[in-house]
Amino acid sequence: SRRTINEFESTLPNNWERSLERAITAAIYAPNHKRTEPWRFYLLGPKSIEKVCKLNAEIVASTKGEEAGAKKLKRWLQMPGWLVVTCVKSQDNDDASGKDFNVESSLAREDYAACCCAVQNLCLSLHSQGIGTKWTTGPVNFDQRFAKAVGFSPDEEYTVGTIWFGSAVVEPSTPGKKLGVEGTFTKVD
User: How many CB atoms lie within 10 A of CB 82?
Assistant: First the structure.
């Protein structure tokens, strides 16, 4: 099954664009309540990647120092493929509770869950085509300047995550699980 890839080859594999289109097709078939189709996908090019990487380095440097920021910048600039996934904010609800993520039955919560399903479908599809992924959700994703660098309005959408993709340098081994099936599955009469 799919594993998170932490080290990628420096260039994207042949036909990666077609693989990404297939993966986005799989993603948009994720279940979503009321068929809102809240997901949006942004494929970053060199300029936007550089903006995001520099923004992240600035954020890291502000809390961990210049050396940590420079190290993070170098690492992030090595990621070959960048796809940002956002969720459209719920707008057309009849009552305010539909927009409140803290209300269990809200459309906002349903839409976020749908976007997470879409990301998983996307990652599984890419994996099945021999392309590895890493879903990242660090502080840079939620900085207001990130939206501008990527090209979406933070008033209309919010970040679900950044997906790095490419050919894995090494296929990671299966990680150990704290809870197996026995610890997570209950039969109820």
Answer: 22
